[in-house]
Write a structure and sequence with these properties.
Rho_GTPase_activation_prot, cytoplasm, GTPase activator activity, 21 helices, 10% strand, alpha+beta, eight-stranded antiparallel sheet, two-stranded antiparallel ribbon, disordered N terminus, globular, phospholipid binding, membrane
Length: 488
């Protein structure tokens, strides 16, 4: 029987041509349909089904999905990708960049010249052009995701001109600056369009079919992201199980279950993108302004004084019980206790430094040094760094004092008054040098990098540190003349 069936199939296949002409009259189509209806033998049905499939051979081939649900979801992704054309990339250019916050945690602002490239949904920062082209290896590339980000011009975060800020949806903040206004405007507008485009495109994400049904960036060729080819999808065990399940109940259940998961993830993603920024929460009073990490002028204005209250109470405490302590300001206090003190100050709680928990004077001096180190702009403002370096190079002492004194008199009022109070205190510390073993050189080493640093780390760090120490040491020695301490 098996041999007879094979013979019948072969003879029927010979009678019916495998490849039909691409153009066919209506009469011929009717004949094909009649043959299908009148076909009785398995051989006839097989030959006719082959001819019907091969008639489409002259059409463009399309990826074949073996499950209706997969086919419909592929169509959704393709339609979504066509609806949002990729943003025209802005080729690399040298911009000044400062990262002032990492996931909501404030960082010291250090301007660095970076080779910057804008893509449809990312801002890439390279150390130089050679690193982008691959001619030079090494160096970290900073990638800023623009989906759900905010961009705005700012004059408060820096004394430089043409500065705008980018706040990502993860809470990281970047400052970008360039001297030429037209160039700055070009980058600002281009980045804003990229943000709007990627945000409207649902954050620039598409659906990758996998067991976890996770969202991945549209550009599947990016490093670290898996391919979403049809072959990968067919290898998925969940898909293999559903290939032969043609029951309507099974198909409806799996489709609705996937839709529910996708709906939850979409709502969560939209919530994260639309959540208010730190600045908005501060303006609404939901988050209090902090003391550590706040601009000196802003803090003094808020407190209605020219010297921060925290600085005053710390200096009073050291004057009262720390002037004769061995290694004052040089010895480190317990970091956990310092952080506890910082937390209390930031929460605007009552602070009594005479309490037993602050018995260790090194905790108070450590918190005071931390306050100065975390200022967004140091006590010696950035624009005074290089003039002070030039002034301290003057060989004649009298002219050197006059140059440094003139620069300090030009400081903003909060900086000048805070500096005057601090150096008059350090002058008293120096008066007990035989007991506390702190010399002018030792104080200069401690407070040099704490009170001043360059805005850009372009120079030699070791050379800068030498000048920092020398400037603080010279001001300390000549503090009575520079600040007129004898004239109350």
């Amino acid at each position: 029987m098996a041999g007879t069936r094979v013979t019948n199939i072969q003879s029927a296949a010979k009678q019916q041509p495998l490849i039909q002409p691409p153009q066919r009259s209506s009469a011929a189509q009717g004949a094909v349909q009649m043959r299908i209806k009148n076909s009785q033998s398995p051989g006839d049905r097989l030959s006719q089904s082959k001819s019907m499939v091969l008639q489409e051979s002259d059409l463009p081939q399309k990826p074949i999905s073996r499950h209706r649900r997969n086919q419909s979801q592929h169509n959704v992704v393709i339609a979504g990708a066509a609806a949002f054309e990729p943003f025209v990339e802005l080729k690399g250019e040298q911009l000044n960049v400062a990262k002032i916050s990492e996931s909501g945690k404030k960082q010291r602002k250090n301007w660095t010249s970076m080779w910057t490239v804008l893509t449809s949904d990312q801002l890439l920062f390279y150390k130089d052009k050679q690193q982008e082209t691959g001619q030079k290896s090494g160096g970290k590339t900073d990638v800023v995701q623009l989906g759900g980000a905010l961009i705005e011009w700012t004059t408060e975060k820096s004394s430089r001109k043409n500065v705008f800020q980018i706040t990502t949806n993860t809470g990281s903040e970047y400052l970008l600056q360039v001297e030429n206004h037209s160039t700055a405007s070009k980058w600002h507008d281009a980045i804003k369009r990229a943000i709007d485009s990627s945000t409207k495109a649902d954050g620039g994400f598409s659906l990758r079919r996998s067991n976890s049904t996770e969202y991945l960036p549209r550009h599947s060729s990016l490093p670290g992201y898996g391919s979403a080819s049809p072959n990968t999808k067919q290898r998925n065990p969940a898909h293999r199980r559903s290939i032969n399940m043609f029951g309507s109940s099974k198909l409806k259940h799996s489709t609705s279950d996937s839709a529910d998961k996708n709906g939850v993830k979409n709502r969560l993603k939209k919530f994260i993108i639309r959540r208010p920024s730190m600045k908005t929460l501060q303006e609404k009073g939901l988050i209090k302004d902090r003391v550590f990490g706040c601009h000196l002028s802003t803090l003094c204005e808020r407190e209605g004084t020219t010297v921060p209250k925290f600085v005053k109470i710390c200096l009073d405490a050291v004057d009262k019980r720390g002037l004769q302590v061995d290694g004052i300001y040089r010895v480190s206090g317990n970091l956990a206790t310092i952080q506890k003190l910082r937390f209390i100050v930031d929460q605007e709680e009552e602070l009594d430094l005479d309490h037993s928990q602050w018995e260790d004077i090194h905790v108070i001096t450590g918190a005071l040094k931390m306050f100065f180190r975390e200022l967004p702009e140091p006590l010696f403002p950035f624009r005074f760094f290089q003039p002070l370096v030039e002034a301290v190079k003057i060989k004649e002492t009298k002219h050197k004092i006059q140059a440094v004194k003139k620069l300090i008199q030009d400081l903003p009022k909060p900086n000048h008054d805070t500096m005057k109070l601090l150096f008059s205190h350090l002058h008293r510390v120096l008066g007990y040098s035989r007991k506390n073993l702190m010399s002018t050189q030792g104080i200069g080493i401690v407070f040099g990098p704490t009170l001043m640093w360059p805005e850009l780390d372009a120079g030699n760090m070791a050379v800068n540190m030498v000048y920092q120490n020398q400037i603080v040491e010279f001001i300390l020695i000549e503090s009575q003349e520079i600040f007129n301490l004898d004239r109350k």
